[in-house]
TrEMBL record, chains A, B:
GO MF term (any one): DNA-binding transcription factor activity
Positions of the DNA-binding region: 43-62
Lineage: Bacteria, Bacillati, Actinomycetota, Actinomycetes, Kitasatosporales
Protein name per Swiss-Prot or TrEMBL: TetR family transcriptional regulator
PANTHER family for this protein: HTH-TYPE TRANSCRIPTIONAL REGULATOR RUTR (PTHR30055), HTH-TYPE TRANSCRIPTIONAL REPRESSOR BDCR (PTHR30055:SF200)
Coiled-coil segments: none
Taxonomic superkingdom: Bacteria
Length: 208, 208
DNA sequence: GCTGAAGGTGAGCGCTCGCTTAGAGTGCCA
DNA sequence: TGGCACTCTAAGCGAGCGCTCACCTTCAGC
């Protein structure tokens, strides 16, 4: 049995590590509000009322509004890094692992779009210390993707002129999904993941 | 002689259409502030003081803070669309025109990063009417890129399974440049433009 | 020299923000 | 049953927000 709860849709709810229950409800409410309006446009009163609590209740579980963002960003980056690591260190050729990394990373950005939006676009609202901690995680994200591409180049499967530039472009493509993906749109997260994996394999010159 | 002024760096300053001078200074100050901190985290006092004026002066030239964002977004989208139209309707094969479209669009996002950030990421701060107007421009942006890809498919130069999905991915790649590009980083806008044009041609299966 | 339009300022209004405080309700254990 | 720890609320503080208003300066036209 998984340690993570699953929703009706079969998607993993990644906030089970946040306790007690009231703290988790506040955090989930904050993710939704930050994703919809952005950190600065969200009020603590809005977060509390979404969680069905009074404004003061927020400060029992979190010192400041920024701490809420920090917790969300930290957990979200951990999850994103975990997804990439699992794919990058799995079995199979660099081609297969890059395809799996891109498709699972994209699925996460599309399927958990609200979280991904906060994680990818609200970084600058963090203070210097928290931002530095998160930036370290992002360098690890970059390193995972770059590693797979380097292996593919070394094995001769890939044909890449600028490894770091291509790494950046691959991540760029995946991350931007959080900006445009629409749950009510014509594509499922799985479909976008498959399409983007194909496009990325083309970008690195992998044989089909 | 061009109707646009040029800076010392040779880059076109696109705000010459904004008059009088004080209104332009306020608008340029707002672009910088919105790009740095986001629309909601920027105060009208900050904008005015960057322009060397008192807080009240802003309201002589603009009805509200949101009108400033609207003007910036409108002019920026017009410029972005103009860049794409010029490239897409130019001479040469679909391959050449797609490469030119991507490289010039990316150059704009990198070289005029502050404007591009506001244009691409502060859309949701606009009210319903203004947002609808801007969304119409974005559909035209999409149509320009899709048009070139469709021509390449029709001529047999491109090998694309999902034209609309690939169009979205191409635009996605270009737009995300505004998020990560760093003026002090190792790459010039020209270099990123050339790299991304190459990557996009690979994505559409164009012969090298 | 006078006038009106245009562009500017200092002061501050009404409001909402993030956050605090005093105290009430609830359940656990001696 | 009493007391304590924990959780939550009602009320509201000080600060800073977008924006306004009364007034000042500059300058072209007569």
């Amino acid at each position: 049995m998984s340690t993570a709860q699953e929703t009706a849709g079969g998607e993993i709810e990644p906030w089970e590590e946040v306790t007690p229950d009231a703290a988790r409800r506040l955090l989930v409410a904050a993710v939704e509000a930050f994703a919809e309006r952005g950190y600065h446009a969200t009020t603590t009163r809005d977060i509390a009322s979404r969680a069905g609590m009074s404004p003061a209740a927020l400060y029992i579980h979190y010192k400041t509004k920024e701490e809420l963002l920090h917790r969300i960003s930290r957990i979200g980056h951990d999850r994103a890094l975990d997804i990439l690591r699992t794919a990058a260190s799995g079995e199979g050729s660099p081609t297969q692992r890059l395809a799996e990394a891109v498709s699972s990373f994209v699925r996460w950005h599309a399927g958990r779009r609200t979280t991904a939006r906060v994680v990818q676009y609200e970084l600058e609202a963090l203070g210097p210390d928290a931002r530095a901690e998160i930036l370290a995680l992002r360098r690890q994200v970059d390193a995972e993707v770059r590693g797979v591409i380097e292996e593919g180049v070394a094995s001769g499967e890939f044909d890449v002129l600028d490894v770091q530039g291509t790494t950046l472009a691959v991540l760029s493509l995946c991350i931007d999904v959080a900006r445009w993906f629409n749950v009510d749109g014509p594509r499922t997260p799985d479909e976008v993941g498959a399409l983007y994996a194909d496009l990325v394999l083309r970008m690195v010159g992998a044989a089909k």
